[in-house]
């Protein structure tokens, strides 16, 4: 396993990190097996943005014996309200939620305290100039967080964070689809020989963001490296050709200032697929042939199951409905296993009444209401 140093901090994190968002609903025994497998294979970096108390408790129990071997990226502003995840800046919710995170992870500190999911410039400014950042400073003074980070899907916000000397770590949604845009001259910062003349390049603002992170020594940890798995399917991928996990990982880790890709996994096998990167050949990692065939547009309108659409007033697990719908429609008939998973959801898509609050929160412009209608029709409820 390769390890990368985070800025001026003392921490070196594994380039393959454990993004634990899919641990929701899994029994402790299964989570413990995955944690143990991570430890045996050199993974030392854990992201926990989830507010679900059971997930937090199971992760804390699983890492407790080897807490000193883990570097934790935990989120401030991710709360659990009425049995749902809610992102909030209300301090009467933020403070107990973070204290709950420490308690359930069975630790008195986390290494990186992440200002959770900031996708609007105005929201960033309010955070940095208000009581939220005062609380973050207090956590650092009390040694409950050792360093400050921020998570975002918006490169404009990323640029502001990268230019803020207080913020040493940026968690960014990053994959080749998110980077693509209409043809432009490639930024000189990238090594042009890695790219074909036919490649359109990346959005200028993202190129600027990567350069700025390099200049300011702001580390990047990668989320959405697989675009919710859609890059593995040629029908869903904007490239028209399926990519492999190795290609996605390699793309993410070869961006300037990228230190670790947080792999969301469901099983030991999926974890092994990512770990294989450490011994894969350069040919297996190569993504250039895929990118040279890419349609020239950004990757928008596709659900990556990030969960930021929550909360739903009827407690629909929107991300899960989207995932089950996507899994179902690739078959001629809905597999019984997928139908049963859908039927066992506490709330079904038919409860959606089209308020569109979820669409306002979606970072990727997904037409969620239409998906809910299609899912209701497909599954019959």
Instruction: Give the assembly state of these chains.
Output: single chain
- Major sheet details: 8 strands, parallel, barrel
Query: How far do the termini sit from each other?
Result: 46 Å
Strand order of the largest sheet: 3-4-5-8-9-10-11-12
Average pLDDT metric: 88
How many whole angstroms does the radius of gyration measure?
20 Å
Written as H for each helix and E for each strand, in order along the chain, the element string is EEEHEHEEEHEHHEHEHHEHEHHHHHHH
**CATH H-tier superfamily of the largest domain:** NADP-dependent oxidoreductase domain
Please state the overall shape, judged from the principal axes of the Cα atoms: globular
CATH level 1 class label of the largest domain? Alpha Beta
Q: What is the β-strand count?
A: 12
Number of domains: 2
How would you portray this structure in words?
The structure is a single chain. This protein has 2 domains: 3-291, TIM Barrel (Alpha-Beta Barrel); 318-379. The chain is built from 16 helices and 12 strands. It has helices at residues 28-40, 53-63, 91-104, 121-128, 131-141, 155-162, 176-179, 204-216, 245-253, 268-275, 282-285, 288-291, 318-329, 336-343, 357-361, 368-379; strands at residues 3-5, 12-14, 16-19, 45-48, 71-76, 78-81, 84-87, 110-115, 145-152, 167-173, 219-223, 258-264. The strands form 3 sheets. It has an 8-stranded parallel β-barrel, surrounded by 5 helices. The chain has a two-stranded antiparallel sheet with strand order 1-2. Helix 2 runs parallel beside helix 3, helix 6 (155-162) packs parallel to helix 8 and helix 13 (318-329) packs across helix 16 (368-379).
């Amino acid at each position: 396993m390769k390890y990368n140093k985070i800025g001026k901090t003392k921490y070196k994190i594994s380039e393959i990190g454990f993004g634990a968002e899919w641990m929701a609903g899994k029994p402790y025994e299964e989570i413990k097996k995955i944690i143990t497998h991570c430890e045996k294979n050199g993974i030392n970096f854990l992201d926990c943005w989830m507010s679900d108390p059971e997930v937090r408790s199971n992760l804390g129990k699983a890492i407790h014996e080897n807490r000193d071997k883990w570097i934790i990226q935990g989120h401030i502003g991710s709360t659990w309200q009425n049995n749902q995840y809610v992102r909030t800046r209300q301090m009467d919710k933020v403070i107990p939620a973070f204290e709950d995170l420490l308690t359930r992870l069975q630790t008195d500190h986390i290494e990186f305290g992440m200002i959770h999911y900031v996708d609007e410039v105005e929201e960033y400014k309010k955070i940095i100039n208000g009581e939220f950042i005062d609380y973050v400073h207090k956590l650092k003074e009390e040694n409950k967080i050792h360093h400050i980070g921020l998570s975002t899907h918006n490169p404009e916000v990323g640029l502001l964070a990268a230019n803020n000397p207080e913020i040493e770590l940026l968690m960014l949604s990053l994959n080749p689809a998110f980077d693509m845009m209409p043809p432009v001259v490639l930024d000189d910062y990238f090594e042009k020989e890695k790219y074909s003349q036919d490649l359109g390049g990346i959005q200028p603002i993202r190129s600027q963001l990567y350069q700025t992170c390099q200049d300011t020594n702001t580390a990047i940890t990668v989320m959405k490296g697989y675009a919710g798995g859609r890059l593995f399917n040629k029908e869903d991928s904007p490239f028209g050709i399926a990519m492999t996990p190795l290609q996605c990982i390699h793309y993410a880790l070869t961006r300037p200032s990228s230190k670790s890709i947080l792999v969301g996994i469901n099983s030991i096998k999926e974890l092994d697929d990512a770990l294989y990167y450490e011994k894969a050949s350069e040919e297996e990692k190569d993504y250039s042939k895929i990118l040279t065939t890419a349609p020239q547009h950004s990757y928008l309108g596709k659900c990556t199951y990030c969960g930021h659409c929550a909360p739903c007033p009827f407690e629909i697990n929107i991300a899960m409905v989207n995932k089950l719908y996507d899994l179902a429609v690739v078959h001629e008939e809905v597999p019984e296993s997928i139908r049963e998973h859908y039927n066992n959801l506490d709330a079904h898509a038919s409860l959606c009444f089209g308020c569109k609050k979820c669409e306002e929160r979606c970072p990727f412009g997904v037409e969620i209401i239409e998906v809910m209608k299609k899912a209701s029709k497909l599954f019959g409820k």
